[in-house]
Structure formats: C-alpha cells, structure tokens
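User: I'm putting together a teaching handout on how multi-component assemblies are represented. Below are the sequence lines for each component of a complex, exactly as they appear in our records. Could you produce the 3D structure of the whole assembly as structure tokens, so the students can see both representations side by side? Please keep the chain order the same as the input.
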Amino acid sequence: MARIELANVQKFFGSVQVLKDVNLTIEDGEFVVMLGQSGCGKTTTLRAIAGLETVSSGTITIDGREVQDLKAGDRDIAFVFQSFSLYPHMTVEENIAFPLRAVSSSRAERESEVKEVARFLGIERLLSRRPSALSGGDMQRVAIGRALVRRPKALLMDEPIGALDAKLREQMRAEIKRLHIARNSTSVYVTHDQVEAMSLADRIVVMHNGVLQQVGAPDEVYLHPANLFVAQFVGSPVMNVADVAVEGAGTDALLRIGRAEGFRVPGGAVAHLNGAATKLGIRPEAVLLTREPGQGGIETETTNVEPLGSHDIVDVRIGGETLRARCESGFARGEGEKVWVSLDPERAHFFDAATGQSMRRAG
Amino acid sequence: MAEVKTTREVVMNRAAIAAVFVALIVMLTPIYWIASTAFKPRSLATTVPPTVFFEPTLTPFAKLFVRRSQMREPVDQETYDAAPWWEQLIYDDGESVVRNRRSGEITPSGYWDRYKNSLIVSIISTFLAVSMGTLTAYGFSRFKVKGENDWLFFILSTRMLPPVVVAIPMFLMYRTVGLHDTHLGLIILYTAFNLSFSVWIMKGFIDEIPREYEEAALVDGYTRLQAFWKIVLPEALTGIAATAVFCFIIAWNEYAFALMMTNRNAQTAPPYIPSQVGSGLPDWSVIAAGAFLFLLPVAIFTFLLRNHLLRGMSFGAIRK
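Assistant: Of course. Below is the structure of the complete assembly, with chains in the same order as your input.
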C-alpha cells in the first residue's frame, strides 16, 4: 500500500484548463473521496493518477516514485470503472484472473488468488458465469475483485456504484467500507453523491472548476465549509444563504435579512465581520421554529412543508428570502401557519459576499 | 400472452407476409433456374416452355471440368466399357474427352484453374482488407487523428468511381509494373477496393466497444497491442464476420476488373464462365453447372457466419 502525492498538477484539454494547480497528499491506507459536480475535474484527477490521462505539468508520486511519465500498467494501481467494464467474452473467473495473466503468474497461483478474492467478496458461486448473467451489484463485486486480485498499491474508483439503484447503492456502500477496513488499501474514490462521500471518506476533497475547494474530514467539511461552494454543495437540503446586514457589534448584534426585523444574536458571534458585505449561511437544522413567540423570534408564516418521514422541511419567508428549516415531523400541517423563527448563532456561517470565502471567528 | 389485434392489423400482417413471399419468389427464381439447368441434359436446357420435371443428370458437371470435342461417329463399345462413369456420360452426349496425344492424359477445361484463382484472390484479399481495415478503424476510433473526418471521407471516396472509369489507367499501370494477369495484382486491387468499405464498417463496430475495456487492461499492465488483441478483437468478432462476408462477396463476384486485368494465368471464374458462351454452340447446362458451383462458396461462407451476420446487421439497434 502506498502514499500518493500530487504536486502542482495542471491539465489542459486544448485551451481549456481542467485541473488548476492541484496539490494533494493521500496517506497510506487512507480512504479519500473526491466530491464535485460533473465536469469539475475529479475524474480527470483520478485518471491522471492512474495514468489514463497525461498531465500538462506537475508531479504525481506513488510511494516516493514519480510516476507522471510512466505508463498506466507500470504504476501498480487498480481502477474500478463506473461501467464495471467486465469483458463480456470472458467468464467471471477469467475476468478476475485477467490482471494476473499480465504478470505471467502460474496457473495454480492464479487459481488460488482468484478463489481467495472471490471468497472475500462472496462471489465464489458466480465464477463460471458470464458477466451478462450477473446482477448490477454482483458485476460491481466482480469488478472490485478484478481490481484487488493483483494486490495493487492503491485502489482508484470512479463512481463505482453510480449506475446501481438506490437500495443496492446503500448496500454496496457498506460493503466498500467493510472492504476498506479489512484490506486497509489506499483508496481514491470519485463521486458526485455527497452521502457516499460523507459515509465512506476518511477525508473529502471538494472540487470545483478544476480547483480543490476544501480538503478535510467529513464532519469538518460539513461543519466548517471553507467557502460558499462547499457550504452549498455538501449537505441536504442545501444550506440557506442570504445577504445579511450586521448591525451593532456590542453585547447584542442584529442580523437583518432584507427589510425584515433583525435576528438578535450575541455580539461575539459577529464581532469578526468588520461590517464587510456578508452572506449568512445557515443549515436547515440551525433554523429554529417555534409555535410561540420566544426570545428574539421573528413572526412569519410557513410557505411550504415537505414531510420526509423522520423529519419535515418547512419553508418560511423572512425579508423576501426563503429559509428552510428542519423540524420534527408533524410540526406544521401546511402553508400559512403562524410560526416564530430564530437562528442558532453558534451554527451560523458568514461568507465574504465578494469572494465567497468563509469568514471564521479567530480561535 | 394473448395479444389483441384489430382486423386492420390482421389484414396488414397478412399483406406483409404475402409481399415477403412475392419478393422471395422473385429473388429465388433465377437461382432455381440456374440450379435446375445445371442438372438437365443438354436437350432439355433450352426448351420452350421450360421443362420442370426431368431426370437429373451429372453430365453437365462432368463436361464442365474437361475439354471435349464433338464425335463424328459413335464410340466403339470396348472403349465405352473401359471408360469411367463420368466419361461414359460424356460419350452418351456424343462428345469425347480431349486427351494428350503422347501421354494420353485428359486435358482439363479452364474451369477448375479459374475457380482456384477465384478462391485464392478472394480469400487473401478479404483477409487483407478486413485485417487492415480493422486496424485502421481502431486507430480512427481510439486516437485523435488530425482531420479525421476528411481522411475518412477520402477513404470512402475511393469507392465512388465506377470500376470502368479507373480500369483503363489501372490496366496501363499494371502492364508497366508487370502486375497484369497476376494473382498479386488482383489481390492488391480487391484489397484496395474493399478497404474503404471495411474501414467504415469496422469503425462503427469498434466505436461501440467501450474504451473502458481497454483502459482496464492498460491499468492491469497490458500494452495497447495486447489490449487490442485480447479485448478489442474478440469483442469486434461480430463486426469482423459481417465485414468479411461482404468483402468476400464483392471480391468473389467482381467482374469488370477481372475481365480487363487478367486473361489466363490469374483469370477468375466470373469472366471465364460467360466466355464459354461464345465458343461454339453454347452448352447452357454446362454453363449453368459452372455458375451453380460458383454460387456455393459464398453460400457456405455466409451460412457458417450467419449468427454473427444477423447480430452484425442489427448492431446499434439495441442498447446493451
């Protein structure tokens, strides 16, 4: 297993720059998930590590060896494709053995390696079948088996479960996690699904327009997003973002959205803002709704209710903006109900309106 | 499962079946005509109206392979009894086999040599056209080629001239370089002719094979050539079979170039068979026998590859 290092990696497709100065270190045995929208450069980064894509400049190091000029086959990594890419003209066994045949191992060796991987993944009974006779989940298990059989230095996965249906995805997610824990293989996993990212990753890398936006543990990315893009990309429902005017910075400050009455917050929560143009970001679970007028609550009406079973998402209007709040289920029946809104100042985020960068409190 | 059909659908369905039958009859009649004439005695070959019921005979096939001459008087009984069955058939028709005066060996007709030439030229040129076409198509499909569309159009454009237009310059060139009336000359010609077709068809098939198959192999430590050999070729087999059938049929049936570029040594069957019509009184049943045997290789080749061919025909119609 290995440590992967990307330093100042740039990639151009013609005149379009798809990777802009990517610097990233993936530690030995770490599970890193690259998260971003389609076209953000996450797959290109993965393919560059694999050697399926050349880089325009910069270095890629695997286990201390510079590999950016090596062929894919000489990098000793394995790649799992979204399309599984199992060879239709070979059986499952031949598919899994295929990488071993490249390094000319003996027949007996191959058979025992294939058996071991198949046992590990629980696909022994499928060995004589053809890929076309497999379910989606089994195809993916075989694809992972083919990747693992050679005991590569690192396992790269490009949306490996993106083509499966929701229920199977959940199951495979758990399996991949179990696999990682059992094998402790250095893994890089690309997805656009933030739930996958949160549940699998040791560290998440959020990418946008070819630039790394934030690299951090899942809870760090969720609780302390580095900028507006990360804030709105991670989390469901999306974080509420509104222009906000901050009035007063003493013991009590006022956060005013539009022309609405302001939210009263302790001055310490906003003291670092210095009166710059600011956007307020607040996750739905930090928007607190009550039925009775409480301290600092603003009176308004619900505009929409989405019941989700375990909880409801309730929309309210404040100063021309819609805030979405996460409430216990059954809190509101429909639109037009009178509620009082307050914000949890501890969980409020502030972003520079011009740059989108997070404005954190010092310390 | 029971299907509900309206009267209109039933009528349309029957009409479609009837139309298929009519088309089938129109297309199969000439083949039946040739096949039946090949087994008719000479006297029945050209009767009006045509003879439908007759006792089949192998005489035309016996005559096809040897050079014969008309006999002025019937053969004596002793020679007749000593002759093999096929020579007796020829005697029965009032002809005798031409033999070498010194060695007494039978003089073959030109048919078998021409047939062999057809086989040699068609098989080799098909093999070359399909293998080169597959490699070219792979290159166009997988790599960024500057001016790709222009190249592909250029390749196809070689097919746009009718053979008659290029035949005379080709003839002059071939005569100058000594390729006239050689197997190699015809093979080169047919390969070039079929290559454009083969490149276009194979590009369609290879485009359908996901790149990830090869990428997976590349990551696993195979070279691109190995990946092509172990992954792309087996996956493209259906396309290769379909392309091979078409190339073979085109090369096998080619007439214009073969007529102009060859006369003896490398002549193929298509120009030879009609040339027999002109020599003396045409023996239509012998010509039919020659044409009938000529149909067989294509029929057998197509039959052997029929499964691939069917899949090849419907490729792209169904998403995997």
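A couple of points students might notice: Residues 166-183 of chain A form the longest helix (18 residues). The first strand of chain A starts at residue 4 and ends at 13.
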